[in-house]
Amino acid sequence: MAVLVLAEHSNDALNDATAKTVAAAQAFGGDIDVLVAGHNAKAAADAAAKLAGVRKVIHVEGEAFSHALAEAVEALVVPMMSGYDAFFAPATTTGKNVAPRIAAKLDVMQISEITKVIDASTFERPIYAGNAILTVKSADAKKVVTVRGTAFQAVAATGSASVETAAAPAGPFKATFVSEELQKSDRPELASAKRVVSGGRALASAEQFNQYILPLADKLGAGVGASRAAVDAGYAPNDFQVGQTGKVVAPELYIAIGISGAIQHLAGMKDSKIIVAINKDEEAPIFQIADYALVGDLFKIVPELTSKL
Amino acid sequence: MKVLVPVKRVIDPNVRPRVKADGTGVDLANIKMAMNPFCEIAVEEAVRMKEKGVVTEIVLVSIGPAQAQETIRIGLAMGGDRGILVQTDVAVEPLAVAKILAKIVEAEQPGLVITGKQAIDDDANQTGQMLAALLDWPQGSFASAVAMDGDKLKVTREVDGGLQTVSLSLPAVVTTDLRLNEPRFASLPNIMKAKKKPIDTKAPADYGVDVTPRLSVVKVAEPKKREAGEKVADVDALIAKLKSVGAI
Questions:
Q1: Facing B129 at nearest CB: one of A100, A247, A288
Q2: A288 in helix, strand or coil?
Q3: Which segments of chain A are extended strands (E)?
Q4: By the CB < 8 Å criterion, does A112 face chain B?
Q5: What is the DSSP letter of B184?
Q6: Mean pLDDT of the A205-230 span
Q7: Are the Cβ atoms of A104 and B98 closer than 8 angstroms?
Q8: Does A168 reach chain B within 8 Å, measured CB to CB?
Q9: pLDDT at A183 over 90
Q10: Residues A36-79 pLDDT 10s
Q11: A92–B contact, CB cutoff 8 A
């Protein structure tokens, strides 16, 4: 058996989600090759070669891969799949964008956001915003899977796989990259941060979100998250959203501030190790899953917490 | 330009799903159902494009049980022009949904398909991308802004690091994210008018698509329960607790 893992990377660095996807591929079994498709992505390919358990890295260079356009990645991966039994991609926005295209071209029903590999055709995945856990068996000859990073421990960087280069498919493609606005931040990346501080609607404005949430996050060296309500209201950017349709996080410590705890939000954070909730509403659903509940006015509590830490 | 918008009937997003005691699925008997929220956003976007004069006709498609007709009616009341119900009691998987939609696209020749990015029941996030692949069309998934740009469609996408904008040649598939728009409520007169709008009823066999599931359910279980913890009196007590468990 052989598995092709799609690397998540930023060309000059490998994203942690790749090592977690390799871990899921190890649980599946067989030889593991990692595909690094990028533009000036040698650094990412070299980093992928260090991941434990990897047989080889396939490094493909092309302008169209600088932003992982789904049309280009599909054209690259589909012909490669004659040599593989499974395609594993991280359940990042890149993986979610491209994996279904590959599945459809292979006539395979994809298994999205797996949290456990039971055997080579059976997987666990959450459905209904994590309110139910589905165990599902695939009858397809090849498997196409996306992997929820929080459910797998990243493999160590102790390997030394070879790096092969392969040719990029000829374009042009029907989609072209125009621009991107990426949040620049020195804070830990939300999806892999050990600590996360999240703010909700109660922050009431972008200014107050920044004024109360960010200093606490910086004091803790934490990533910053937000509820959907806070993002919809414009208090925080979209890439902060934690929940069913945003990012799923499972840090050691999750501090929910002014977040009531809709099931869609809980879906994105309830696997955190320790959950602290600060909310003035004693009846807020977030308190039903919080390890430590502090009822009170966040505008008093948060500055005090920040100064005393 | 004609737009095709697939809409799915799902559990109401405000209802807490319960796993059946026999572990075969989620109990949907007598549960309030609604249009999938991402599909509502897709319908709204199509209606706004029609109001801007970019779109001439909005065709809604639902694949599901007879009651999915109600879901189409909601979309018609929001501003859709006509509907196609592909009626089946099988829980059709995204791959088969995409195959049926591809056949409908062949017949209807829309310039754009707008789908929700995921359904809140199976959380698969696949159908739009699969449809684009089957048609060899470009895709703008997880869209937070859509605008015509000459003969291209400019789509701003919500990605992990922020926002990405791509330019798509048409025809194309767009899948909607939460911030694309805020769907309108259908007014009573529009709900009345929608009752007269036509809905064609078809079956998967009419499109030659085998909807037999590729995935079989081994079991559906409750997630591990998280117990409520303890209340702490003040900030000092919270810090003491967090120190005692090594969290800070």
A1: A100
A2: helix
A3: 2-6, 31-38, 56-61, 86-90, 111-114, 116-119, 122-127, 132-138, 143-147, 162-166, 175-182, 195-199, 223-226, 253-257, 274-279, 292-295
A4: yes
A5: P
A6: 98
A7: yes
A8: no
A9: no
A10: 999 999 999 999 999 999 999 999 999 999 999 999 999 999 99
A11: yes
Long-range (24+ apart) CB contacts under 8 A made by B223-226 are B223/A126, B223/A130, B223/A131, B223/A132, B223/A133, B223/A270, B226/A270, B226/A275, B226/A288, B226/A289
Q: Say yes or no: A162 contacts chain B, CB-CB below 8 A.
A: no
Q: Mutate which of A260, A292, A301 to test chain B, going by most B C-beta atoms within 10 A?
A: A292
At B25 the pLDDT is 96
Query: CA A223, CA A250: separation in Å to the nearest integer?
Result: 12
Work out the pLDDT band at A184, boundaries 50, 70, 90.
Answer: confident
ipTM: 0.96
Contact (Cβ atoms closer than 8 angstroms) between residue A265 and residue A259: yes
- Nearest chain B residue to A300 by CA distance is B235
Pairing of strands B82-87, B9-11: unpaired
Q: Helices B94-108 and A93-106: crossing angle, nearest 10°?
A: 70
The per-residue pLDDT of chain A, averaged, comes to 97
